[in-house]
Amino acid sequence: DGEAYAYLLNALAPEHSTPSTLDTSDPTERANMVLQQAEKLECKRFLTPKDIVEGSPNLNLAFVAQIFHNRNGLSTESKNMSYAEMMTDDVETSREERCFRLWINSLGISTYVNNLFEDVRNGWVMLEVLDKLFPGTVNWKQANKPPIKMPFKKVENCNQVINIGKDLNFSLVNVAGNDVVAGNKKLIVAFLWQLMRFSMLQLLKNLRSYSHGKEITDADILNWANNKVKKSGRTTQMESFKDKSLSNGVFFLELLTAVEPRVVDWNLVTKGETDEDKKSNATYIISVARKIGCSIFLLPEDVIEVNQKMILTLTASIMYFCLQQQGEGPDDIDLASEVSRLSVDGSVSDAAPSPQAED
Q1: Does 81 fall in a domain?
Q2: Per-residue pLDDT tens for 97-120?
Q3: Per residue in 27-83, pLDDT tens?
């Protein structure tokens, strides 16, 4: 009925809180006052007092995420790392939707995506993603910020999205802004896949800056990960990115611990002997990686199934984070004598859609 929100906002933003919020006996009125206080923290009003009173899980989750983003109460002066919590997700949504949603939410944009195909329809989320991946490409003076009531303003945003995509040589045959506003899932997926593929390639390209421009091979990334775990005093190793033993998730949790010792809560880790335990570990891997700031391109299923290319990008993402944080130079990477180009093609994931957009 909003009481918990009232206490939370009073703790986070006492300057905007009033005793009347808790004094009122009407749950709907209390919820409305909570939303008014949240707006003072620049939280967007996308849910109603009724949603709070009735306890809509998805909308309340997104609301809490917004409050956390705008006023989380954490000290900006402290860099102390806390344990990552277990990520929760809606297993009933499609695999591709969860994949894109996780990836977008790992980019650090200001909007939290809760329902992919609904949340992208006004064009704003896609503009934020484009600006994150291609800084300077978005003309924000011509963009319309949510909440957007007029349909033509949504079309304006989506037209700019499509135009930027065409400037980037994305495959967008017979695609217009109206298609995004209308929620055409096939075209939305095709566009997002091309964005995510670029992000993967950019990650691998960025690794080159730590090797004086030399190509970093898949063997280099493999050796780095094994050495990192070994130096931390653990014995688990992986033979390749298709090593079936990786399905239990233990190696990556040990790698993440080696990279950031304070982030993995081993009380949440299982031995990964059953399918349920494997899924739990795989889900926690993504929670931890996202918490420390890694780009996320995969789902728990990709870990369990040992999807070779997605396992590669996960390892590369952890490696890139580590090199950024610790300032490791090229001397810390054993470059293979035979250089094989590291690339990601259109078959990165078995679940990945084709980048071709057809009418």
Answers
A1: no
A2: 889 999 999 998 999 999 999 999
A3: 888 888 888 888 877 777 777 888 888 887 777 777 787 787 777 665 444 445 667
Total domains present in the chain: 3
- With respect to residue 85, please indicate whether it lies within any of the assigned structural domains: no
Q: How far apart are CA 317 and CA 220, in angstroms?
A: 13
Range of the domain at 317: 212-332
> In whole angstroms, how far apart are CA 220 and each of 191, 211, 225, 315?
31, 11, 9, 11
67-96 residues labelled b (16+ CB within 10 A) or e (exposed): beebbeeeeeeeeeeeebeeeeeeeeeeeb
- Determine the Cα angle at 220 with ends 215 and 226, to 5°: 165
Q: Which of 25, 53, 70 is the last residue of a domain?
A: 70
Percent of residues in the chain assigned helix, strand, coil, to nearest 5: 55, 0, 45
CATH code, domain carrying 64: 1.10.418.10
